[in-house]
Design goal:
The protein has about 230 residues and is mainly alpha-helical. It has two domains: about 70 residues, no CATH class; about 140 residues. It has eleven helices and two strands; from the N terminus they run ββααααααααααα. It has a two-stranded antiparallel sheet with strand order 1-2. α2 packs across α3 and α8 runs antiparallel to α9. It is elongated, with a radius of gyration of 21 Å.
Length: about 230
């Protein structure tokens, strides 16, 4: 069943009103699914849980909203943080591979940007808030609501200045990334040790020894180290 809405934008003297008309079965269908990391589902959850209801004579929409807030928003740390950390870990290795080993500029920038997005979403989840829609997640104005907002904005600036032909510059970006990780990813056994940083100390070290590339070995030795305590 489609979850599409009818949307009307009304220009007033002070603002643009974004009016949405939806059948209650849209909310019934949405709440029947488990919360997940899909960007569209996260955007829908944020939209449905925070919208201001103008017409709900039987209180059906209010009941749906109350259920969504209790089962998805209030429990965000339980279901969203592990999913974000898992996605982050899988993306981390691919970013190292495309950036350090293959120097593929566009691929690496895409992956590094995604890492920053995942950290931003983590920041909101750690604060008990739903992440904003992806289209404006990395806006400095939006990020200013986070304790690490300025650091995330600085990461984006550093990303745009980093050359994939300079492994030391990529390493510098990952060091800056690690500093934000240390402050954000600190809850639960999944984050213990920041194990994904082992791609530098283990995978690249192993590769350097078998290819005889001392520059890779030196790079791995200078990379961010996994933490030993949560």
């Amino acid at each position: 069943m489609s979850r599409k809405l009818s949307v009307i934008n009304v220009l007033t003297d002070a603002e643009v009103l974004n009016l949405k008309l939806l059948h209650t079965r849209v909310l019934t269908s949405f709440r029947a699914q488990d919360p997940n990391l899909d960007s569209q589902d996260l955007e829908d959850l944020e939209k449905y849980a925070t919208m201001r209801v103008l017409h709900d004579p039987d209180g059906v929409i209010a009941t749906h909203q109350q259920w969504l807030r209790h089962h998805a928003v209030d429990t965000i740390g339980d279901w969203l943080l592990p999913a974000l950390a898992s996605r982050y870990a899988s993306t981390y290795w691919r970013s190292v591979y495309q950036g350090v080993l293959r120097t593929e500029e566009h691929a690496w920038r895409h992956l590094a940007t995604h890492l920053t997005e995942l950290l931003a979403q983590t920041g909101f989840a750690q604060a008990g808030a739903l992440p904003p829609p992806r289209k404006w997640l990395l806006s400095p104005r939006i990020l200013s609501a986070l304790t690490e907002g300025a650091a995330l904005t600085a990461l984006l600036d550093q990303l745009h200045r980093t050359s994939t032909t300079d492994p030391d510059a990529i390493l510098g970006f990952h060091r800056a990334l690690a500093a934000v990780e240390d402050r954000l990813l600190h809850t639960g056994e999944l984050y213990t040790g920041m194990w994904w940083r082992g791609v530098f100390t283990e995978h690249i070290t192993h590769l350097a020894r078998h290819t005889g590339q001392p520059d890779l070995l030196a790079l791995a030795q200078a990379a961010p180290r996994p933490r030993t305590t949560p």
